[in-house]
Hints:
By secondary structure, this protein is of the alpha/beta class. 45% of the residues lie in helices and 16% in strands.
Amino acid sequence: MIIIGEKINGLFASVAKAIDRRDASYIQDLAISQVKHGAHILDINTGPGREDAPAVMEWLVKTVQEVVDVPLSIDTPGPKTMEAGLRVCRNKPIMNSTTAERKRMEKFFPLCKEYDAEIICLTLDERGIPNDAQSRAEMAMLMMTTAMEYDIMPERIYLDPLILPVGAAQDQCKKVIEAIRIFQTLNEPPPRTVVGLSNVSNLTKERSLLNRTYLAMLMGAGLTAAICDPLDEELMKIVKAGEILLNQRLYCDDFLRA
Ligand code: THG
């Protein structure tokens, strides 16, 4: 399982404050601890409603790269903010993300090509998120074929069926698992998949329990990567155990105990 650390996100009040103060060491501590706890990639998001988002993105990327050397996932819907991040990435960047909206694809696929990036494709268009797995798969297919018109091969794409909060759309949790299964049938080799795991527990009391239970289910369905909290120890234990049960990691009793 590829772990994408979610914690450098202006959604968190403490991170928003650190951004306002340009408190580099707060951001750098978050980067170092996530990598130390097993993050392979770090998601970087300036948070909502910032006029200075491009400048903030550039500062975040540079600040993080001073202390860790993992690839970064530039998480923004804004083309200017996206490009500000891509321009300063040292490693191959991941664009998070395009949707199936025409205008968004026309902006983001050329950027993906120009910066030789990977890209997350969200199953969402002008009409919103499709309400079942098959429609999500059709939208995923549309994004993959449109990407090919820009010479972006499916190997560079992660498909994201978009997890909704269980409290708001309980029936969607199972449909996202189904979508992960169907996405893998859309191409050969099977397209990679990703989710924003913590979305599922938004506004619930048992966040960690819901997150890790859902992650185990999604792993069983073949999920490639999760944007999640690597500092959640119970969650990371489930990642390790899941990898063993899926025969992706050699079984070792002592390792599981550690
Ligand atoms: N897919 C893709 N990218 C994504 C998402 C996705 N990026 C953003 C998000 N979803 C994944 N990252 C987070 C980060 C934080 C939270 C949830 C998902 C979160 N934050 C607390 C909240 O909003 O309640 C902040 C609370 C606090 O201040 O501590 O839960 O789906 N491709």
